C-alpha cells in the first residue's frame, strides 16, 4: 500500500506524524507543568485585597451606587479567578476538560477512512498500469 502513495506521499506522512509527535509533546508539557500553588495563593490574596479596598475608594464619589458597582467588579474578578482554576489542567475527566476520547475517536475514524479509500484507490492504480 505504501508503494501506491510513492516517496512524496511517504514524506508527507512522515511530516504529519512528526507534527503529531510535536503536538503530543506540547500537551505533555502542559499536563506535567502545574501552576505553582504560591501563584494561585498570591492571585487570590491580591484579588481579595483589591475587592476589600475598592469600596473605600469609591464611596466618596458614588455613595450608595458603589454597592452594585463593587458587586459587579467582585463577581467578574472572582469569576475570572475561578475560571483560571478550572482550566488550569485541561487533560482530565471534569466536564470542562478537553474531550480527548472524542478527539482520538474522530482521528481514528478519519485514519480508517483514509486507509479504506487508499486501499480502494490501489485497484484503480493497478487497472491503469495494465492499460
From TrEMBL:
Highest taxon of the lineage: Eukaryota
Keyword Ribosomal protein included in the entry's annotation: no
Subcellular location: Membrane
Keyword set includes Transmembrane helix: yes
GO MF annotation terms: chloride channel activity
InterPro entries per record: YneE/VCCN1/2-like
GO CC, one annotated term: membrane
Protein name (Swiss-Prot/TrEMBL): UPF0187 protein
Organism: Thanatephorus cucumeris (strain AG1-IB / isolate 7/3/14)
